[in-house]
Amino acid sequence: MDFAALYVRLFGSHREPLSFQTLAGDASSRRYHRADFGSGADPSRVVIMELPEDALASDEATAGGPPPELPFLNVGRHLAARGIRVPRVYLDAVSQGAVVLEDLGDATLARRIADVSRDELRLWYLAAVELLARMHEAMWPAPEGCLAASRSFDLALLRWELDHFREWGAEALAGKPLAPAVRAALDAEFDTLATDVAALPRGFVHRDYQSRNLMVVSDEPSPANLVVIDFQDALGGPRVYDLVALLNDSYVELDEELKQEIIERYAGLRGIDAVSLRGEFDLVTVQRKLKDGGRFVFIDRVRHNPAFLPYVETSFGRVRRALERLPEREGLRAALAAADPAHFG
């Protein structure tokens, strides 16, 4: 990465940062750096998102070829146009392998709520769900030109995610493939689950709306003090998906009473029947958290980042609890127990 050339494009002349820091990695293939140019510069501090060589590629079973534009820029532009705060883009340097962004600091919602009282936790989650409802109202139907209008959480992608769990969350952890009969039973249940999730009411899906992807810019719990990040995978899908991501976040433990209050709050804000929404919530929880657990193992084994392994069991625990509220999915529970007895037996 030629950072000096980026600085010339950003400021119009050569300027060296007073400090430069490579930030801790996450599950992404992108790298992030913070550059501080001092109070005399505008902007004075930036975050540089360094892109991989295959920035437009995907390892998922998404339909069609590569997108015509970096999804982060495309989706972010449409969110901002509809009043959803996202990081400001100072420089589109995709041709040089980077995007220069507003520095929002390090205070994610996950960090902000660590060790707070339940009352304060509740206020922050009420703010987060109000922002979520606003985003969903503003972005559905997805605006023309937004990549979320052309991408879908369709049956193929849902089914691919369940296979991702089977490959990494069950077989890789066990160190061997499933027995043919066990695999057949699991595949049949996954076919049904994916079909049922694909048939749920649709909406705009951020796809990873959770405590690590909401930046806090002030100490007052308010939607205005939350900035949405990591929205590049947005698409059309189950309307409840982002609510599941928020409330069944692998990194934060919320009590059931608070979850139910937030679900009802979202239902009220969107004019949706709360009982119907709770049923959708549990079904999508099973699909989403199976994928999450498998993905965390994949990130360890393939991307050599073990940081997410502690959340494998947390994710699968969310699945078990959701299945307890779905007695009609007994066949799925039994198939999971046979395929992964360590977590579901």
Structural features, described:
There is one protein chain. This protein folds into two domains: 3-102, 2-Layer Sandwich (Phosphorylase Kinase, domain 1); 109-344, Aminoglycoside 3'-phosphotransferase, Chain: A, domain 2 (Alpha-Beta Complex), CATH 3.90.1200. The strands form three sheets. The chain has a five-stranded antiparallel sheet with strand order 1-2-3-5-4, covered by helices on one side. It has a two-stranded antiparallel ribbon with strand order 6-9. Strand 1 and strand 2 form a beta hairpin. With 345 residues, it is of the alpha+beta class. The mean pLDDT is 95. It is built from twelve helices and nine strands. 47% of the residues lie in helices and 12% in strands. The radius of gyration is 21 Å and the shape is globular. It has helices spanning 3-11, 71-81, 109-112, 118-139, 155-174, 180-198, 241-247, 256-270, 274-301, 311-324, 330-339, 341-344, and strands spanning 19-22, 31-36, 45-50, 89-93, 98-102, 202-205, 214-216, 226-228, 235-238.
Order of helices and strands: HEEEHEEHHHHEEEEHHHHHH
What is the CATH H-level superfamily of the largest domain?
Aminoglycoside phosphotransferase (APH), C-terminal lobe
- Got a strand count? 9
Task: Provide mean pLDDT, rounded.
Answer: 95
Number of domains: 2
Secondary structure class reads alpha+beta
From the 3D structure, determine the CATH topology of the largest domain: Aminoglycoside 3'-phosphotransferase, Chain: A, domain 2
Q: Can you give the helix content as a percent range? A: 40-55%
With strands numbered from the N-terminus, the spatial order across the biggest sheet is: 1-2-3-5-4
Fraction in beta strands: 5-15%
Main sheet specs: 5 strands, antiparallel
Q: Counting H and I runs of at least 4 residues, what is the number of helices? A: 12
CATH class of the largest domain: Alpha Beta
Globally, the shape reads globular
